[in-house]
Amino acid sequence: MNLLSIGISHNTASLDIREKMWMSNDEVKEALKQLKGKYFNEAMLVSTCNRTELYGLTPDTQVDDAGLKKFLIDFKGASGVVTPNHFYGSLAGGSVSHLFKVAAGVDSMVIGDIQILNQVKEAFNLSTEIGAMGPVMNRLMQATLHVGKRVRTETTICEGAVSVSYAAVELASKIFAELPKKSALLIGAGETGELTMKHLIGKGIGRIKIANRTREKAEALIATLEAHAIGEVLDYEQISEALRTVDIVITSVNSPAYIVQPDHVRSVMKQRSNNPLFIIDISVPRSVDPSCNKVENVFVYDMDSLSAIVDKNIEKRKAELPKVTTIVREETVEFFKWHNSLQVGPTIQELTSAIEAIRHLEVEKNINRFKPEDRELVEMLTKRIINKILHQPITNLRNGAQNGARGSETVTRIKALRDLFGIEEKDTHGG
Amino acid sequence: MLKFTSLFLFQPVFRIFSAFFILQSEFMDIVTLVDVLVVAMPLLYAFLVGIYAVSFFRNAPAITRLKTPALLFTVGLHIIYIAVRTVAFDHPPITTVFEIMTMLAVCISIAYTYIELRTKASNTGMFILLLAFVFQLVSSFYIKDLTEIAPILRSRLLGFHVSTALLGYTAISLSAVYGFLYLMLYREIKSSSFGLIYNKLPNLEMLEKMSSKSEIFGFIMLTVAIAIGLIWLPKAFDSFSYLDPKLIGTMTVWALYAISLAAKRKLGWQGRKMMIVSLIAFGFVFLSMTVINMYMSGFHSFY
What we know:
The structure holds two protein chains of two kinds. Chain A is an alpha/beta fold. Chain A folds into three domains: 155 residues, Beta Polymerase, domain 2 (2-Layer Sandwich); 152 residues, NAD(P)-binding Rossmann-like Domain (Rossmann fold, 3-Layer(aba) Sandwich); 93 residues, no CATH class. Chain A has 15 helices and ten strands. Chain A is elongated, with a radius of gyration of 32 Å. Chain B has two domains: 149 residues, no CATH class; 151 residues, no CATH class. Chain B contains ten helices and no strands. Chain B is flat and about 60 Å long. The chains are: A alpha/beta, B mainly alpha.
C-alpha cells in the first residue's frame, strides 16, 4: 500500500516549532488542494497544538519524502526555524498504526487525551469537503473512528482527571447531583482558579461568584469566562455572606495566614443548615485550614491532595496501555485484510481471464484438426486443465490475503503474479 | 414508588394465576413445583448477585450486558414462585415471618428493577440485590408448606396490614442500603482515598436523596401498618398486651425513624447523621423480624 505519513509532534519538536507548523482549517484545506494531484491521490492533514501530521496515498511507490517536508515548511513560511529533522514519518502499516495510536490518545502529551479523536474526525471532514478523500482514506477514517470508540468502551485510558482543575471538578460531581442547581465562589484569581471555573461552567454550573481584592480583575475574569449571564462580582467583605449560600468555594489567594478557619466554617454550616460545602484550596501556601475537613459535610481539598489524584489517574491510564496496543494491532490487521482483499479479487479475475483467453485462442486455432464429435471433448478437457493449474495459486493467494499479518507478502505476490503473467497493473487505490 | 401499591391488590392477579396453574397441575404436581422453586430462588439470586458483583469489580462488558436480562428473569420467576405458592397452599405467603421474607425479597427486587430501568444506573444493584438474596435465603431455609392457616389470618384487615408493612420494610431496606453506600462514599471523599466505591457509585447527593426519600415513604407505610395492627389486634387476640416484645420492637423502630425525621426537619440533620440513624433503625427492623419473631414469640407468631 502506498500510504505515507509525515509530521511533527511534541515527540520531535518544541512548542515554538509546533506553533510555526500549526495550520488553521483554511490552511489545511489549501495545503490539501495543492498536495492532491501533485503528491497524492488521497490525503488528510491533521493539525493541533501538539501535532501537524499529513497522511496520503501516493500514486506510485516512489515517495518524495524530502519534497514533501520542504513543501510543508515552505507552505507555512517556516524555513530556517523548522527543519526536515523535526519530522518523522512512516509507510504503509506504520502509518496506519500511528494514526490509530494518535486517535486512541496514546501518542498525546497527556496520555488518553479525549479531544484528539474529535480533531482527527474534523481533519477527515475537512479533507472530505475539498474532495481529497477516496476509498482507501474513507475506509481508514471509519477504521480510525472505530479504534477511538473501542478504546473508549473497552479500556479506561480516558478516565480519571489528569489536571488539578479537572480533578476538582470531577470531585464536585461526585458530591453534588446537579451542578446546574449549584453555585460556586472563586476567591482570588490565578490560572488554576480560572481553569477550574472554566471546567465548572463547562459542566453547567448554575451560578458563579468571583471575589478579588481588585474588583476590575474579577470583572475581567467574568468577561474572559464569557459568564455574564451566570456570573457576579463580589467585594471582599461579602465573602462571609456568600459562604452561606454557595456550594463550591475555590480559594486562590496569597495570604500569610489561613483565611478560612474551622470555627468559621462550623458557624457557616449552621447557617446553611448543613448543606454540603466543597472547598477547593488551590492557594500555595494553603489559605484554608486543613482541619476544616473535619467539620461534617465539609469537604476540603488542597493542591497536594488534588495532585495526588492526578498522579494516580495518570498511573491508571498508563496501566491500560497494553490493552490499547492490542486494539491498535487488531484494527491494523483488519484494515490490511480489507486492503488486501481489494487487490486480490481483481487480480484473480484478470489472471483467470488472461489464461482463458490463451486457451480459447489455441483451441480455436486447432479445433479443425479434431473430428466434429471430439470437439466438445477438447473444449472440456482444456478447460479442466487450466482450472486445475490455476486452482492452487488462487487458493493460496486468497488465503494469504485473509491473513492480514502477511499483508506485505500478499502485495509482493500480486506484483509478481502480474509481472510474470504480464497482467497490466490496475489502479487499485482508485477502487 | 406508589405504583407498587397496585401490586398488593393481590386478588385479581392471583385469580388469573390460579386458573393457569390449576390447568397445568395435571402435568406437574404443583407442590413439587413449589419445592423446586424454593431451592431455585436463592440459587438464582446468588447467581444474579454474582453477575452484578463481577460487573462491579471488573470491567467486563459481556457480563454487564447480562445484568438486566438476568434481573428481569429472576424477578419474573420470583413472582411466579409466589403465585404458585399461593395456589398450592391456598393462601398468599404472608402468614409467617419466612413467608413474609420471600415477599420482602421480591418487593425489594421489584423496587430495584424499577430504579434500574428508570435511572439506567445499575452499579448499586449488587448491594440491594444482596439484601434480597439474604431474605430469600433465610426464607427458603425455614419456610414450611402450610395448608392450614389460623382462621384469624383470614381477616381482610390483615391484607392491608401486611401490604403496607411490606412496602414500608422494602422502602426502609432500600433506604438502609443507600445509606450504607452514602457512608462508604462519604468516607472515601473525606479521606481522599478513592476506590471502587468512588469510581462506580453515583454522587453523594443522589445517594442521600434516594435514602431519605425511601425512608420517608417507608415511615409513612409503617405508620399505616402499625395503625391497622393496633386497631385489629385487641379485637383479634384476647391475650393481647401492649407490652408484647414484637410490639415494643416495632414501636422502637418507628420511634427511631420519627425522631430522625424530626431531627432532619428541626435540627437540620443531613447526610452522615441521617444515614447512620437509618442504618441503626434498619438493624432494629432486622432484629424485630428475626430474633423477636422467632424466640420471643408474642402475638405475632401464629404457629
